[in-house]
Amino acid sequence: MTLYQIVSLVIILVFSIILSVQDIKRLQVGIFIQWASIFCALTCHIIFARNEMWIFIISSMILGSIYFAIRKITKEKLGPGDVWFGFFQGLFLYPKMLWICFAIETLLALCIENKKIGHKKFPFIPYMSAGLAGTYLIQFFF
Q: What confidence category does residue 22 fall into, taking pLDDT thresholds of 50, 70 and 90?
């Protein structure tokens, strides 16, 4: 594992834990922490992977746009923090890995939340965090 991958994984884990705990406790997350997470991710790319940075920015825009569309289609059942976290997720994943991340978090949410989905709000960032961490590890180890 390279220094770049270690630093990226630390950023993912630190912000995923902070935002997941906030989402579980309050069903909302602080926007400034979201911006800090994106800033740290971009800084990491500037320092370690300047040449690949643009592919991650494109990936971030794709995933953030998907979550924004889901938010609008579901009449805002997905919170704005989830959309911002989608942008953060994309900054660490190659575009071909986005569907794996989305599949992991959707399957986890469906299995754990079961019949409650659609009937009441639930914290989705913990599932997004698990999807991001799992996909990031799959991306670099397989």
A: very high
